[in-house]
Design brief:
The chain is α/β, with parallel strands linked by helices and about 280 residues long. It folds into two domains: about 200 residues; about 80 residues. It has six helices and six strands; from the N terminus they run H-H-E-E-E-H-E-E-E-H-H-H. The protein has a six-stranded mixed sheet. The radius of gyration is 31 Å and the shape is elongated.
Length: about 280
Amino acid sequence: MQTVKNYNELGFTDDFMFGKVMQDTELCHDVLECLLQRPVGELSDVVSQREFRYTSDGKPIRVDIYTRDTKNIYDTEMQNLGHKKPEDLALPRRSRFYQSSIDADHLDKTHSYKSLPDSNVLFICTFDPFGKGLPRYTFREICEEDKRVRLNDGTTKIFYNCTYKGGDLPEDLRELYEYVDAGKINNDLTTRIDMAVRRARSNEEWRSSYMKEMVLFMDAREEGRAEGREEGRVEGREEGREEERANTERERKRADTAENRASIAEARVKELEALLKK
């Protein structure tokens, strides 16, 4: 069962706090440069919990941090395991859905295919998402028949394994991993992240927003439980009716069998009586 944290207990790895802290454009920029290990342009439109929905009945998605520079779009997700197994999170297919939603959103603004910017879907994981012991897993489209041929569609999906303990990581990325994994503050970036978390905990507006979200979450969870209990009762009643129908059918068959046996016995008696008369 998912537990609800007190607001003062939230850290960088909690979705709500991650979204608030990463709204700081400069901090978001520096975290992205650390993750990608390359320069990132000036960011615009740093949006937390941005929702994409294309039809009234379509499945909406909310991305943790959505931002862009002049050539790239970045979707950065903080991913905890909770009480689930990695495969239950369906991260590969989720990354596919996020990627397609970002592209559709861009094209929906009357842009052409050629104008699609490069996109980066980044999952900062507090566990090893694929269980292979790698520090990160980077996916880009390549030709299976000839690995030298790349699709060059401008998409990149990276899953960061922040539990990695090897010594072959760039120092700043290793230190970010240590902060995500154990809360260890060991450089300027992690110091700034931790200070941003502490400031966020004293933000009363954000505290109120978090409490409202948690009330909605708990109401939805209780509603789901109530629906589950009612469905269980309905299923139980239906199973009872099915059992009753099955019992009735068995009784009918037994009655039919007994009647058939009685008819056969009666016929044999008549045959014997006829023989005795002869």
